[in-house]
Amino acid sequence: MSQGESNVLLKPALLLVGTVIAAVVVVFALNGVLAYLGIGAVGPAGPQADAPATPQANASGSGESAVAAGEGGVQKLPGTWPGEKWYSEDLREQEFDYKDPTAGEEVQFQPKQMNNSTLPDNEHRAELIRYGRDLFANTSNEMPENVGNDLSCANCHGGGDLPTTTGMVGQDIDMIPLVGTAAGYPEWTGRTQRMRDMRQRIMGCFLRSMNAPGAEEGVPEYDSREMQAMESYMVWLNKGTPSQRTPYWRHIEKPEGDEKVPVSEVNPVRGAELYLENCASCHGADGQGIEGQYPPLWGEGSYNDGAGMGRMYTSAGFIREAMPYGAGHTFSNWEDVQDVAGFMNAHKRPHLPRQPKDWAAAGAPDEGIYYNRTQQRLGYDMNPMTKKLMLAGMPIDDTEVTEEMIPEDTSRYDQPLRNESVDGSWQTTWIRTYEDVGNETATNQSATNETATNQSAITAQGAVTSAMEGDGDSRAAG
Ligand code: HEC
Ligand code: HEC
C-alpha cells in the first residue's frame, strides 16, 4: 500500500545520506592521517614528561611536619594553618570553673564567612551550599515531611544564630562543630561492619535526632536535592582545613575513667534540682522550651530514644560543653552534669521502631539507658533514670516539675534502687516499654514484627539505612 510507495522514495534518499556519511568518514580519516603526520608531536608529549611527579608531595600541601600516622589515636591539629585561622588551640584545655561568668568569652572563635571569596564560582554549586545552610538552620520548617519533631540540626550543631557567624551552623566550637569533619568520610562503622559516607551519616541524624520515622515521608532520599545541599554545606565547611586529619574538636568530650559516674549511681532527682536552677529558665520546667527559641528536651517534639543525645555520657558531654546556652563549661564537675543528663533522659520521648535492632552484635553500651538490653544488663526492668524519678513520685512526661515535687533527701537516689518496684502508668505510654521491647527482642531477636515492617518500608534505601545504625565504638550516633 502506501508503505511500498514511500519505500521506493526512501531508497534514493538513503543512498544520498550514505554517500554523505562516506564522504565525511573519508575526510575524517584524511584529517587523522594529516594530524598524525603533521601535528602528532604536540598533544600528549608535554604533560607526560612531568607526569610522574612525587605523589607524596602532592598529598599534603600544608608543609607541616608530618604527624606520625597509623598510631590509631586522634591527631591534634594546630589552631592555625596557612591561609586560614580557625579556632584557638587550647579551647578544650581551659579550666572549667563553676559558674564562671566569663567562661563563654574565653572561647576565641574565628568563623568562616559565607561570601563570594569562600563560595565556589559556579552559581549552581554556590546556591546548593546556601540551600544546605538554610536546611541546617531551619530543618523542621524547611523539611517538615522529613522531620518528626520540633528540632533543627542547628539546635545541637550550633552557630545557627550567632551574630558572629552570620548564621553558619556547625561553627560553634562548643556545640558539636562540623568544621573539617567532612574529611572523615567515608568512614568505617563498627556497629554495622561497613563503610558509610557523609549522606548516610546525615540520614542517621534524621532517623534519630530528627525522629524522621515520625514524619510523613521519613528519612530523606539519599540522592535528593536536600541531601546534596547538606552535603555541599558540610564540604564548604571543610574547605581550608587540611584533609586526612581529624580535627581536635571533632566529637563531644565525654567523661572518661574516673569522671564517669556508673549509670546506676547517676542521680536524676538531684539532677532535677540542678535543672530547675540552670536550665528551666529557657527550656521550661516542663522541658518543652519555647517554639522558635528554645528547643524541647523531651516529649514528642524532641529527639527519639535511638539518638546519640539519649545516651548518658554523650548528653553529659554535650551539656558540659554547650549549656547553659552562651555559658558552656560552667558546671564544676562531671557528677553534676551527669545528674542533669540523667534527669533529661529519664523522660518520655518518641520511640525509634528499629531501636531494638541497634547494637545487635556488641550489645548497647551502659550509657544507652533507653536500650532494653542495657537496662537488663544493669539489672533494671526499665530506664534506670525513669525508675528513680518515678520512685521519687516525679513526672516523666511534660508535666512541669516544681521544687515542691523534689524529695528532701535526694541522696537516696544515688543508690541503684534496682529492686524497688514502681507503680504508675508508664507502661501504657508512647515510649515503648520494657515489656514491649523485651518480649520482642527476647522471643524474636532476628526480626521483630515492627522492625521488619519498618525495614521493608524503606527497602529502596536498604543499604543506605543499614549504614545509619549506631556506631559500635563509643562514639555517638547523632
Ligand atoms: C539561656 C538559655 C538556655 C539555658 C539556660 C539552657 N539552654 Fe539548652 N539550649 C538553648 C538554646 C538556644 C539551644 C539551641 C541552640 C541553637 O539552636 O543554636 C539549646 C539546646 C539544647 C540542647 C540540644 C537540643 C535539644 O533540644 O535536645 C540540649 C540537650 C540542651 N539545650 C540542654 C540544656 C540543659 C541540660 C541545660 C541546663 C544545664 C540548658 N540546656 C540550659 C538555650 C538554653
Ligand atoms: C539532638 C541533637 C542533634 C540534632 C538535632 C542533630 N544532631 Fe547531628 N549529631 C548529634 C550528636 C550527639 C552527634 C555525635 C557527636 C560526636 O561524634 O561526639 C552528631 C553527629 C553528627 C554528624 C557527624 C559529625 C562528625 O564529626 O563526623 C553529622 C554529619 C551530623 N550530626 C549531622 C546532622 C544533621 C544534618 C542534622 C539535622 C538533620 C543533625 N545532625 C541534627 C546530635 C544531633
Structure description:
This protein is globular. Strand 3 (187-189) and strand 4 form a beta hairpin. It is an all-alpha fold and 478 residues long. The N and C termini lie far apart (71 Å). A two-stranded antiparallel sheet has the order 1-2. Helices cover 36% and strands 2% of the residues. The chain has two domains: 109-250 and 447-478, Cytochrome Bc1 Complex, Chain D, domain 2, CATH 1.10.760.10; 257-445, Orthogonal Bundle (Cytochrome Bc1 Complex, Chain D, domain 2), CATH 1.10.760.10. It has helices spanning 2-38, 45-50, 55-59, 123-137, 139-142, 153-156, 198-208, 225-238, 268-278, 280-283, 312-322, 334-344, 372-377, 384-391, 434-443, 449-457, 462-466; strands at residues 80-81, 84-85, 187-189, 194-196. The model is unreliable at 1-109, 433-467 and 469-476 (pLDDT under 50). Helix 11 packs across helix 12. Bound molecules: heme C (2 copies). One heme C is lined by residues 139, 151, 153, 155-157, 176, 178, 181, 184, 201-202, 205-206, 209-210, 230, 250-252, 303, 307-309, 314, 475-476, 478. Pfam families: Cytochrom_C, SoxA-TsdA_cyt-c. The chain crosses the membrane at residues 12-39. Residues 441-464 have a biased composition (Polar residues). Keywords: Heme, Iron, Membrane, Metal-binding, Transmembrane, Transmembrane helix. This is C-type cytochrome.
